[in-house]
Write a structure and sequence with these properties.
The protein has 20 helices and 14 strands. With 611 residues, the protein is an alpha/beta fold. The protein has two domains: 351 residues, Up-down Bundle (ABC transporter transmembrane region fold); 234 residues, Rossmann fold (3-Layer(aba) Sandwich). α7 runs antiparallel to α9 and α10 packs antiparallel against α11. The longest helix is centred in the first third of the chain and has 49 residues.
Amino acid sequence: MSQQAVTEAAGPEARGGPHRGRSSPGLRFLQHAGGFWLGSNSGAAWLLTASFLALLLASFPIKYAGNAWQKYFFDALENMDAPTLWRAIWLIALIVLAAAAIAVLQIHAQTRLKLRWRTWLTERLIARWLSERRFYRLSTLHHGETPEARIAEDGRVAIELLVDLAGGVIISLITAVGFIGVLWWAAGSLVIFGFEIPGYMVLVSVIYSLALSGLTWLTARPLVRSVEQKGAAEARFRYELTRVRDAAEPIALINGENDERALLDESLREVVARWYGVIRDRARVGLINASNTALVPITPLLLMAPKYASGEMTLGDMMLVAGAFIQVQTALGWLSDNAIFIADWFGSARRVAGLHDLLDELDATSARAAGITIGESPDDAIRIENLSIALSNGDTIIEDASVTIGRGEKVLFQGASGSGKSTFIRALAGLWPWGEGTILMPVGAAIAFIPQRPYLPPGPLRKALAYPAGDHKATDAAMKSILSRCGLRHLADRLDAEEDWSATLSPADAQRIGFCRALLAKPDILILDEPTSALDEPSQSRLMELLTTELPAATILHAGLRPGLEAFHTREIAVVRKDAGSPGSIVNRPLTIVGRLREILRRGRDGDLRR
């Protein structure tokens, strides 16, 4: 690879930062999430949105009626008008019932909108993360990243808070416009030094709100970053806990608890430090909000008191203006009241957008490199042409490899540890994009893979045997037979048993399950990556013999170092390095019939050849 390709493969950070030239994270999140109103689900999305908006609009007349009721009630109270007071009591009961009904419907519509939108976004995040094997490449390039936390937690918070905040903005705008009219009409004008100021309460409310919002915004800006850092620290802590759980056995075997505790304590201290930052920044915002809460109810009363004392307005008028002022102030002060939630939303939206950025960077890195092309072979052979394999940082580990593997060949890939043979196998399986050259696979060939550590999904044993679900429909009899022949007779009657098979089975039995899968699936091409590392040599021999006898037409590509494997292959491809640090090359070594017979006789003499 050229130096330019290496620099480009290093990602956006090497060219001046990952966000240069991009829009803000919040806007990028909205661009991704806005597809909810497009495509096949748009009908339901628009219906839920329209219902939510209609109920928001319906809540305003209730607020207006409640404010007007104050004038009606307090004027009756001031005039000692008992019949009117009783009517006011019945009227407020009706207003409360209407408000409750609209609130319940609004909660229902709002929650359904959140759930539907979150489901849509989560499904697309999962689909993008899992498609084109990005989840594998992301784990290779960014070991500490936690896409699962961004998808599950940050995606939920970003959607739920966005719906809440959007509803708050809409109702605040409607409330501000409606009650500013009440303030203008009910408060009248104020004469100061001979100058008349019409609608002076509107002016006071706007000035008050602008001052409060500006002060809150300046105070809350650091909170956005604090919340994001806290979320990232929490995700890293969960990742460390999961890592310890997954590696529980090797950690316990070597008494690594103290070292792991030290690492977890360090990660926890980072979480605590980030939380202290959030607490500090939230306290500043909280101080402003608390002051505002205390000032808002008394400010209009103080400003109206002279007009009431002079007889220019009734008690009902004063309470009407006070209620309208509070409504306007609440609406215009929405930013200050919700600064903490806005910061939480920005933090979560930034992390969801960051996941898209990581996947974009991953795609761009693969696209900028020359890339390994997977194509269709003109015949039944696997053709590898001018293949060079590199690490993600651009270092070449195998250079200019060309080889043809005919249908039904059993090829053993060998080489010193770290030579790149497993990476070569991953490239053949389409998992490794870094490098250049061409791999041509037979058209329509069914490909199966047995890794060193087979994945066993939760659920019944039959699900683990059929994983991943393909077109083959193995019968119970076939599954039981394969289990018995692969040395798992004790599991033959437990096909419907539901257990955590990854924890229940030993590494050796898990590898036997991998062989069972391949024998049931009967693929055209079978790729093995040290699938017998946990087995003893007799078990390895029995399983490899099963493969060669049960799948005679299958092409087998096997990366392995264990002794005794040569007898089950017709050809060896060795990855050889001339010296340390230099790229490797491949060397074809036919396995002669004499050599294979010698190995078979040796195993028979040692009593290893059993079925």
